[in-house]
Hints:
single chain; 2 domains; alpha+beta; Beta-lactamase
Amino acid sequence: MPWGEFKDTAAERRLFQRRTLVMMILVVISLGLLIARMYQLQVVEHDIYTTLSDKNRVQVQSVAPPRGLIYDRNDQLLAENRPVFSVTLVPERVGDMEETLAKLHRMLDISDEDMERFRRRLLEPRRPFQELPLRYDLTEQEIARLAVHRHELPGVEVSAELVRYYPHSELTAHALGYVGRINREELQRIDPINYAGTNYIGKSGVERFYEELLHGRVGYEHVETNARGRTLRVLERQNPVPGEDIRLHMDLRLQRLAHELLDGRRGAIIAIEPSSGGILALASVPGFDANQFVTGIGVEAYRSLSESIDRPLFNRALRGQYPPGSTLKPMLAVAALDSGVTTREKTIWDPGYFQLKEGGRRYRNWKRTGHGWVNLMDSMAQSTDTYFYQVGVEMGIDTMHEYLSAFGFGEDATLDVSGALSGLLPSKDWKRAVHNEPWYPGDSVNLGIGQGYMLATPLQLATATSVIANRGSWHEPRLLRDVMGDRATDDVLPSGTHKSIELKNQGDWEFIVDTMEAVMHGSKGTARGAAKDAPYRMAGKTGTAQVFSLAEDEEYEEEEVRERLRDHALFVGFAPVDDPQIAVAVIVENGGSGSGTAAPVARALFDAWLLGFPEEGEALIVGEPEEGAN
């Protein structure tokens, strides 16, 4: 059969043409789709993809505000900021975390403690792309070493930041408190926007109470980065608003003197300016170096502080709750006079003890042989317990509770002192609720000399003494003196709520002050040795608080009692009498008698404040103790 009968050229041509047409149509459709997509991307969605592109290149970074500075009343710097270089990692930008940490460990001296802390922070909730510090306080050599190997360490940066520094750390630690790294709980309650660039927050003291004022407002900057996330240049910047600088009532010279006077003995000193309530000194000894806590204290260092038998982390001035002992007698004398339980002239016989009923328990006076016939003036000057045993029973708990409450006992009466405790002012209801017992007359006997259930902080004793110095006028204790920026101090400082104590006879205030003056300058005053040769008149009251109880007929022999079981030595007072400029409360734990230990400390504080601070090398403690006086 001929070959031509098997090949249909026309049909093949038609098939080829159809196929070509289909392919052309497909090509045209594809080109149309590509052109349409290009138009959508380049024209319709141009702004969207430009923004997305910029996000890969431009980032918004927060800029932490400089923390406000803290000054004392004489503009001595108490808390400042210093630059610290640290190595930080952004986990989202680190490829292999373990390999990167291993490289850094070979380059730098990174302790196991630092590494453990970093791994712990790595697991905690945090903000995206937040830098996590690995090592602080890099040396110049370490910074140079990191710079050389920078290309090998994506996500690793050397960051410079301002870190809180306390130049007088141990002197001011308990008053100022300290800042520290923001923890998980704080991260949940702080403003995430304003704290976006901040790693530190006030943990205690002034730093915590005025955190909002000191912190400032965060700033932002738009930065251009490369593919590795490293900053190439800053495109735009909104500067942060620095925190406000503040000035405190505290006087660094008096604060230092208070620490020197305690001379390493466990105790606390509070000094207040009666006319304003300003706290001039807040000393708790022993103290600690607050700078250790700023960037994170080591485990061993913290264990050493927390397990120390002397409890250096414990703020005795604000949180130490002690039986006030005889330092409570001026306030009880006010209560007894105003309630009519006693008069200025009323006398009682002091045989050296007091009995609720004949043949009953004898509540001893500190002087075993007694003081004979004494009135209120004599009882205050000589600290006659028997007199106050009797007026305590006659007043009863309800009257004593009412008047002592008016002096600020049983509450935190401060305006801006963070962490102050309220002590314990007992009442009938309190004893029934806590001990399921009624209030007995014997309880009133003990409260009459500031013992029993009663507990007070040194700050409360100084506050009550300041109220007496002001003849009943209240000025709540405060640390802030003024804000050094644009904000008004009155807008920052909380308002006081205590009313002046109005007595039926306002002249009783002067009489009580006279009795306290007799303690210091009277011929039989328990603290007359401490006031010897003073060119001004001072008022005060010594006190001794028992750490453990004696049997009814047991003698107290200080030398035979272990040091930590000895009585606490207390003193409260103010000076000058006619124009009070300073009121103090002193407690020396296990110091023995108030007259022999605490009163001379107060005299040195009075002299420094009123006459001028001693030069280096001068004797600090003046006066002579009175044997046996409490």
